[in-house]
Amino acid sequence: MFTKNIERYGRLGPFLVVVPALVVVGALGFSTLGGFGAALIAGGLGLGWALFVGFIAMRVARRESWRPALANGSVFLAALGAGLMAGGSLLEMMLLSAGLGSPSTTFTMIHPPFGDSFNLFIITLNSLMEWLLIPVALFLNWHIPKRRTFIVIAAMAFYAMRVWTYLYFVPNIFEFGALPPDGPFSAEIVERFRIWVNLSWLRFAIQDVLPYLLFLLAAFVPASASDNFRKPAGEKPVEREAQGA
């Protein structure tokens, strides 16, 4: 009974993280564009996508010989995506912070053509991390306990910041983007934007830098670590059935 419970947790564990995360961020993300109806549809799509990715990942990982390569590859891609995200966000944050003393300059940066270029980069990488790279890394590394710890913490930090993004940062940036880039800007708007930029530094640290560092740490954990689930002291681990048996 204990063995069956452990194995069931090993199969269902990543779903307990990925499914709620994709349902929530999908619903919140699309609610900013299409309201409640779009949120419901996106939440359903998030559920379906999470189940689909989990099924495919577990299917391809059934071969024992493929597991280390799949685990390493997924961690490498997640670390690469997080690193690119952190680098691009750092550049944007430095430019926005440098222009806070000159509102017209700063607001010009969130309008075309500068704003479009940054938004394309940010939205593309965030979407890849949200919907593909982090979920796949969770599914393909769940059987490695030390890696799992790093990746779960990275995922929780990332998705928590995505929720905050859709609740606060996105609505505000839409409002700022609707303002004429050359002003005039009221003192209230300038102060709100200053707070938005300062809070963005906190989001940058938790959403971009922390997951990047955690994925790097996970990469140093050998993927060849035993897949056997841990049992109480004094009991031998459950041996996997021979491939093809």
Q: Would you spell out the secondary-structure blueprint of this structure?
A:
Elements: H1 2-60, H2 67-98, H3 103-109, H4 114-141, H5 145-177, H6 187-219
Describe the model:
With 245 residues, the protein is mainly α. The chain has a domain at 65-219. It is built from 6 helices and no strands. It has helices at 2-60, 67-98, 103-109, 114-141, 145-177, 187-219. Helix 4 (114-141) runs antiparallel to helix 5 (145-177) and helix 5 runs antiparallel to helix 6. Mean pLDDT is 85; it is low at 1-7 and 225-245.
Summarize the structure.
The chain is 78% helix and 0% strand. It is mainly alpha-helical.
H-E order: HHHHHH
Name the poorly predicted regions: 1-7, 225-245
Count of β-strands: 0
Class per helix and strand makeup: mainly alpha
Please state roughly what percent of the residues sit in beta strands, choosing from under 5%, 5-15%, 15-25%, 25-35%, 35-45% or over 45%.
under 5%
**Ends apart, CA distance between termini:** 23 Å
- What is the count of helical runs? 6
* Helix share, percent: over 70%
- Please state the average pLDDT score: 85
Main beta sheet: strand number and arrangement?
none
Shape: elongated
Structural Rg: 21 Å
